[in-house]
Amino acid sequence: MQHIGEQRRSPSEQQQRPTAAELARTIVSGPYSGSVLTDWLDSAVAVSFWVDHAGRIVLFVSDGHPLARVSCLQANTAADFIVDAVSVQQGPDRRTASVEMTGRLSPVNPTDAAVALTNHARARGLEDVTDLGRLWTLELRPDRIEVNLAAGSHLVDVADYLAASPDPLAQSAHRIAEHLNSSHREVLLELLPGVPPTTPVTMVGLDRYGIDLQVGEYLRRVCFKNPLTRKEELGRELFELRRLRVHA
Question: What is the model's pTM?
Fold first, then answer.
């Protein structure tokens, strides 16, 4: 049975959503904190980190941090690295998803460490690496990756994780949804031909492949014609979707 106002769509269009590998890359590359657990720690400890375009994960620890001792050990120290995705909306439980990586920690060579520190400082809005203080740089090389979502957990192949890319809309999705929900409800309705204009419509999700809309009591997925590679492409894609549906 079709949902209210729903047109026939191909199975590929209905299923066009981020893969578990893409979700993992998006979460790990997000503005979240990480935590690390090793054999000698009783509980996980917080750690700053940076992820490059190839998915390489570099951790930053100060002299007094429990992980600083890794630099005195042989490479390939076993560790669990966890990144929690946290909603910008306030609430008792703001954790929306997490990625857990089991792998090995190794000291980073000076040249790569300098690059990582420079990018880490830039991401924090600092002009000089020295503003970070003295930090050890450690690389995590994962051999097992698990994505934990409300709907369940998914194991991710390491090669698939490295080949994936973060969602270009992830950091803007909440702000875009707030703007459209509060000021441009007519844009959302135009994506849903056949839906009465008085029907409550709210954008509840946005990614490179499409938009999730709460339409009354139903959840609808509107897929983009092509996956977006930059957030600046969203306006053009919405215009094209509206044009196609208005003239359908």
Answer: 0.84
